[in-house]
TrEMBL record:
This is DHRS7 reductase. The keyword Zinc does not apply. It comes from Trogon melanurus (Black-tailed trogon). One of its GO terms (molecular function) is oxidoreductase activity. Keywords: Oxidoreductase.
Amino acid sequence: LEISNLGEKDILVLRLDLTDRSSHEAATNSVLKHFGKIDVLINNGGRSQRSLFVDTNLDVYSAIMELNYLGTISLTKYVLNHMIQRRKGKIVTVSSVMGIMGAPLATGYCASKHALQGFFNSLRPELTDYPEISIINICPGPVQSKIIQNVFTENLGKSLENSGDQSHKMPTDRCARLTLVSVANDLKEAWVSDNPYLAVCYLWQYAPTWAWWLTNRMGRRRIQNFKSGL
């Protein structure tokens, strides 16, 4: 049993809405006022998607990008300004394996994660004058969480009727531990996933033609299951 030495002064919890970008500067300043510095920012807010593009309202795509992408880079901007002044810090973004591959029923979600990958991979070389500021992208595969219960669907007001079984997914604590190991070692990108999903990541990276063939095969079955309510 580990005994924590943390006291009340070591913990600060703030409510934050990633879509309310006008509040991000004040939230950052509140943290700085309390702790005096920010060593690590972990961008872990976002929503997934389960719907076919042809059935999905474009407002859903706007909302996905507003939350997953624009909200994340907005908060990053204010925290990064502080880290540049200190010349030190870590910006960790929980992307997804969907940021490096495509998947049916998640076109908007994949787009938002691809956007994050492109943004932070482009931001990293802008910070070459600050070698102690790390940009770290974490790409989890399927992980046990409530992300499925809260996905975007065809319309903004509609929730998913069946979230399905999650027992086959990586346990949450293992994902968190592997993420912390990646952050501690300043990995630029980490794929946090079990097989067979991890193997598919390697296919997309090194054998994309095979990956497209496999994704089409798996995608057809996934869409059939989705339409059947499974």
